[in-house]
Amino acid sequence: MSLPDPSFLLIQSLNGLTYAMFLFLIASGLSLILGVLGILNFAHGSLYMVGAYLTHHFVSHFIDTPGHFWLAVILGSMIVAVIGVIIETFFLRHLYIREELYQLLFTYALVLIIGDFAKILWGTGQLSVSRPAILKGAVEILGIYFPKYNIFIILLGPCIAFLFWFILLRTRWGRMIRAAALDREALGSLGVNVSRLFTIVFFIGAWLAGLGGALVSPVSAIVPGMDVEIIVNAFIVVVIGGLGSFWGTFLGSLIVGQVYALGILVLPRLSLVFIYILMALVLIIRPWGLLGRPLQR
Questions:
Q1: H or E segment and range at residue 281
Q2: pLDDT (tens digit, 0 to 9) for every residue of the chain, 297 residues total?
């Protein structure tokens, strides 16, 4: 079997990097909510799907407005964040002291409810969004053309990663969020409104999910069921990177994206299996993830 052309390998790797940045947006919000609130939110993928549908809706509505795509991304992701606040305030807040089983059942019920609402509002057919005018076209890399929009996503991912790293490590709100992940009772005893902090964390996590869905709309079909596929891969990223580890999530996204993109070249029919094998190996060798920390018992 002959080796693939180096330029083709590079383009395939860049495709994996693009997918990794989308995964990072989803998985970072999932990891944040799970690490701070302790909620295993199965509905996180549903928020991603709603972000994609809302972006399509607003792009169609503001089609004659300059910069309509970016306006749709902002509106779609912010509405998803508000939906997240409503879910946390009126429902999840009452489940924090309950057993994890109740939380899992509730968030799984949300997946079914949101999925049915999406079918009612937008139908079951495939929808798509055109790429913004400024990012249409492609650039030549080693004789092969690569879309400008994908390059934008590859550059955007690290920018968002460093922005949230700065917020979490260098700001007062970031210190409180990290403290809440370690000991919420002690933080509350210091006069911090932990309930409001939890709402802010869920807002950020939901916004990241909505932003991921909004940005993926020009490169992927918007269909019912896209939430299930992404949430499974997001959980794999969190497991590989390590629960509560921000940079672990980033590293896990990069690994999963490359394994998925390059695994297709090795065994196309088993490309998805490689990701699960990798997750199993991490769980066996380092159960707390590559950059995570062992749970203190």
A1: helix 271-285
A2: 555 677 888 889 999 999 999 999 999 999 999 888 888 899 999 999 999 999 999 999 998 888 999 999 999 999 999 999 999 999 998 888 788 889 889 999 999 999 999 999 999 999 999 999 999 999 988 788 999 999 999 999 999 999 988 988 889 888 898 888 778 888 888 888 989 999 999 999 999 999 999 999 999 999 999 999 899 999 999 999 987 788 999 999 999 999 988 887 777 777 778 889 999 999 999 988 998 877 554
Residue ranges of E strands in the chain: 138-141, 144-147
DSSP letter for each residue of 83-108: HHHHHHHHTGGGGTTS-HHHHHHHHH
Contact 144/11 with Cβ under 8 angstroms? yes
Closest CA to 103 of 213, 211, 202, 175: 202
Q: List Cβ<8 Å contacts ≥24 apart for 254-258.
A: 254/17, 254/20, 256/20, 256/23, 257/16, 257/17, 257/18, 257/19, 257/20, 257/21, 257/23, 258/13, 258/16, 258/17, 258/20
Instruction: Tell me if the pTM is above 0.70.
Output: yes
Find tokens 């990794």 and name the residue: 20
Identity of residue 131: R
**How many whole angstroms separate alpha carbon 104 and alpha carbon 95?**
10
**Alpha-helical regions (H) of 91-193:** 100-122, 148-170, 172-182, 184-189
